[in-house]
Amino acid sequence: MKFGVFDHIDSSGQPLARQIEDRLELAEAYDRLGFHALHIAEHHSTPLGVAPSPSVFLALVAQRTRRLRFGPLVYTLPLYHPLRLAEEICTLDQLSDGRLELGVGRGVSPLEIASMGVAPKEAQAMYLEAFQVVMKALTSRNVSFEGRHYRFDDVPIILEPVQKPHPPLWYGVFNAESTEWAASLAVNVVTNLPPAAVRVITDRYRAEWSKLGKDPGRIPLMGVNRHIVVAETDREAMEIGRRAYRKWFQNFSALWRKRGVALPGNIAYSEEFDGIVKSEQAIAGSPRTVRDAIARQIAQSGANYLLARLAFGDLSLEESLNSAELFAARVMPELAAAAVS
């Protein structure tokens, strides 16, 4: 069982430079406290993401940490020139001495894709072609490719990643059908769904992995992503969570509200913190309460990786640091020990 951190880097209301510095201080804390990895989102035209260029932020993380793995979850491939992105990936892997975790996807929000001048109906085809080009660029010394959206003829590839054949891959999933592709390429997966729905995905992933004859002990990470607030008491944690989530949900829904479009069902959250605590998409409480809730969810979901959202909405640096320190000192050790036994 491993524990990582996920961060939208949504607007806290602070000046941007101050917020970015706070997030970098948190990254240093995650490094010190023994978290496996920091995963950050990519969002555009919305306060849900005020660090919309993952490579820029992650280059700073590479310099401020020593052990922590990190990466985008995900790079929105239709918005990139694939060869240029491959160069950024190699640079980050080199800067960090092989600590990059590479998340890829087409982009969860068609509104954001459209705001960047890409037709949402073309995003899936562009993603599939771009992914092929990026993989070729990471694993060979030249790239030739002929597709509908991208064409390259014997392009020399100068940069290479530290990790061979490429950094570990990550993909966000909402349904079990995606696991066939993920298992075939040993892709780590993550979902925001409630535990029962996660179980359908993890069971299918294990079945696909077994069908391919692969070692069950080497199965990739199958993660669940949860808003988490840890405090000395349940009451304090819930009060902090309710306040901060209100700001996060405003950020989350801002572009959809502006366009007058309903939130799609596969990414919808309750408008109130109590609602996502009830659906088990958030956990708040004392270390014991959080530890027991996570243990229960892991057993229900079959996941082997937990991504904690420890910074969201208007949580202060001190509040997020306190959650991280309590989580690392009084939640992670017992859960890790239980997983081993």
Structural class label: alpha/beta
Q: CATH architecture of the domain at 2-51 and 60-66 and 222-340, please? A: Alpha-Beta Barrel
Mean pLDDT: 96
| Cα distance spanning the termini | 11 Å
How much beta, percentage-wise? 15-25%
Query: What is the general shape?
Result: globular
From the alpha carbons, calculate the radius of gyration and give it in angstroms: 19 Å
Report the helical percentage: 40-55%
List the total number of helices: 12
Number of strands: 12
Please trace the helix and strand order, writing H or E for each element: EHEHEEHEHHEEEHEHEHHEHEHH
Poorly predicted spans: none
Q: Name the CATH superfamily classification of the domain at 2-51 and 60-66 and 222-340.
A: Luciferase-like domain
Q: In CATH, what is the class of the domain at 2-51 and 60-66 and 222-340?
A: Alpha Beta
Task: Give me the CATH fold name of the domain at 2-51 and 60-66 and 222-340.
Answer: TIM Barrel
In this structure, how is the largest beta sheet organized? 10 strands, parallel
